[in-house]
Design goal:
Order of helices and strands: EEEEEEHHHHH
Low-confidence stretches: 140-170
Number of domains: 2
Shape: globular
Strand order of the largest sheet: 1-2-3-4-5-6
Number of helices: 5
Bound molecules: zinc ion
Oligomer: single chain
Mean pLDDT: 75
Strand content: 15-25%
Number of strands: 6
Length: about 180
């Protein structure tokens, strides 16, 4: 039984779970109960047709139950790949003014070659950046903000982020 689980985001933007053994699960809402959410192994489709399901407590997302064992081995490169995508997303949100290409090459430069090979293509990576920016600006305060309010929120978020991180800003430059 895996010892922990964490939420990740699939390339298409859906919420998934990565367990400590490197297996990935997709939500199966139709099988949720009043107290649990139901997730099935991401390899439930042919040819693998894995039947493994896991159940999380809705209250605190703790792992309650793992059903059948997987009929396949875990993809060992998945955790490393997820780390890379996560760091790319963070960069995208923290550096709203950096060009997408720069963020991607910066991220890939920090990553082992064998992990890079398993990453999605550049086009998908660029979409990861754009999606991360869209969601970080949209969820900053109110998702239903009007266009002009959204712009103000974006500006506000920018100020906060630059003062928190080492991104060069007008006020935060040492020794000048
Ligand atoms: Zn499986």
């Amino acid at each position: 039984m895996p010892t922990f689980s964490k939420f990740i985001t699939s390339q298409r933007g859906a919420q998934q779970i990565l367990d400590s053994d490197g297996y990935i699960y997709s939500r199966k809402k139709s099988s949720d109960t009043a107290l649990t959410s139901t997730w099935r192994c991401a390899k439930y489709n042919p040819p693998t047709k894995c039947k493994c399901h896991i159940y999380l407590a809705l209250a605190d997302n703790s792992l309650i139950l793992v059903t059948k064992p997987h009929n396949h081995s875990a993809d060992g490169s998945v955790p490393a790949r997820q780390e890379v995508l996560l760091s790319l997303k963070r960069k995208a949100a923290d550096q709203p003014l950096s060009a997408t290409q720069n963020l991607i090459s910066e991220t890939l430069a920090d990553t082992a070659a064998e992990v890079n090979q398993s990453l999605p293509n550049l086009e998908s990576l660029a979409r990861v950046v754009q999606r991360s920016r869209a969601s970080s600006s949209g969820s900053a305060q109110h998702a239903e903000a009007t266009t002009s309010e959204d712009f103000i929120l974006r500006e506000g978020g920018l100020v906060t982020l630059t003062s928190m991180t080492s991104v060069p800003s007008t006020r935060h430059t040492p020794a000048r």
